[in-house]
Amino acid sequence: MVNTRARSRLLPIKEGLKFDEMVQMVHENFGINRSSNELEFSYALPESMLRDMPKDTPPVFVNNDRQWDSMCEMCKSMPLRLCISVKNGILGNHDQGFNHEDTATVNPEDTAVVKSKNVNRQDSNQEPEVEDSNFHDAKVIKKGQWFKNKAELSWSLRMLSIERKFRMVVSKSDKKLLVVKCVDTSCKWMVRAAKTNPTSEFFWETKYIDKHTCFSRNIGGPRASSRVISKLLLENFGNSGLNMKPELISSIMKKRNGLDSKYWKIWKAREEARTEVLGSPESSYAQLPVYMHKLVMANPGTIASLEVDSEHRFKYLFFSFAASVKGFKFMRRVVVVDGTFLKGKFKGVLLVATAQDGDSHVYPLAFGIVDAENEASWEWFFNRLTSIVTDDASLVVISDRCLAIAKAVAKVYPLAQRGICTYHLRKNVISQPGGRKIARLVKTAIKAYTTAEFDLIFSEIRRQNHKLSVYLEDADVHLWS
Ligand SMILES: [Zn+2]
């Protein structure tokens, strides 16, 4: 709501507030006559969601408690802008000075901050109405266009220069005025924008010469910061841009936008885009307790365990979905465990435990995140796993030859039998000198049905590569599985 007199209002939104109560609160706070004015509530879906949707996705309207609740639920995890419009446009206590649009930002603390844009309608013959469609559309600049502030105007200009492949320079810039020209001093292209009044944040284009009279438009090409590149990347490729190689991004940006950026800048831009979409690694770890809590709430029966150190920093994580927990009783009592390195900023290791169904298909059981594969971390993981998989003689735990796993299994699952994964074993054989040659024999030995057959194949292995046969014997044939 563009409202000079009522200005901003803080509207507290408590948990469980009904839609009708919210409507009443807005009427009261902005002094709008309820009987003759109907309010319309709507909000745009957050940018992170819109990225995967068609460009013309309309705003979401809120008319009842159910829609209001789902909006409140959504804004617990991401900021939303609630737009409240007065339908017939006659405001109770204020007879003039409004453009009937209200923008409220609802923050996750269940409080709404209602911002009022500061525009006076009385000057409307000189200043255009503020429509939201005039905002955010970087790359399009018109005379008489409004910008929320100087930063938004500068941003639009930067995007424009990239889109049109020219370089510009700031000729004048202070709190009230911004003049930007083409890098070629003889060129007439220019934009002049001024602040509307001292208290307002709005910038208004007062002069715009859209035509370049220079011939050097592509000399040097436009310049872009990593932030601009990251924005372009997301705009053009959405989430798939996050996994593109910097070399590829660089060549596309060069072709499309004439940008000639250094490798490090492109790499940084991709990291910034990742942070924007996925959040920073720090914030992701910080959200883990809440996420785990919600996971258990949404999937009753899910097991989640988070271990922190004495300074409340992340140490270990374990989780197993309710479906995995419930289904294990129908699986073969074979648990395969393994760890793999994580490549994120904080590294660490992802631990996985799977079972097998009657048809030897992989059945996911549990996941863990720990600092490294060692006895302490595996022991912690197995201790959590005991709530799903109990120890007894019919259980087989299979892993690679990691000593830490062997020790931890012996401690936590003393009754269970242990097996060595022959897939890992064969991979180890292949990586050793002459290993590739005898790998096939090893595979046949693994599949051997009788001891005699096995002995025969193994003596051939011994004959061909004595060193590797010793290695294989060390790996304890009885544990092969
Ligand atoms: Zn020019």
Q: How would you describe this structure in keywords?
A:
flat, 5 domains, single chain, alpha+beta, 20 strands, 15 helices, 481 residues, binds zinc ion, 7-stranded mixed β-sheet
Helix share of residues? 25-40%
Count of helices? 15
The set of bound ligands, ions and cofactors reads: zinc ion
Apparent shape: flat
**Structural Rg:** 32 Å
Biggest β-sheet: strands ordered side by side in the sheet: 14-15-18-17-16-19-20
- Count of distinct strands: 20
Q: How many distinct domains?
A: 5
- How many strands, which pairing sense, and closed or not: the largest β-sheet? 7 strands, mixed
Indicate the low-confidence ranges by residue numbers: 89-137
- Secondary-structure content class: alpha+beta
Distance between the termini: 70 Å
Mean pLDDT reading: 80
Model description:
Strand 11 and strand 12 form a beta hairpin. By secondary structure, the chain is of the alpha+beta class. The chain folds into 5 domains: 120 residues, no CATH class; 78 residues, no CATH class; 53 residues; 138 residues, no CATH class; 57 residues. The protein is flat and about 95 Å long. The longest helix is centred in the middle third of the chain and has 18 residues. The strands form 4 sheets. Strands 14-15-18-17-16-19-20 form a 7-stranded mixed sheet, with helices on both faces. A 6-stranded antiparallel sheet has the order 2-8-7-5-3-4, covered by helices on one side. The chain starts with a strand and ends in a 7-residue tail after the last helix. The chain binds zinc ion. The site of zinc ion has 8 residues, from loops. It holds the Pfam family DBD_Tnp_Mut. InterPro entries: MULE_transposase_dom (IPR018289), Transposase_MuDR (IPR004332).
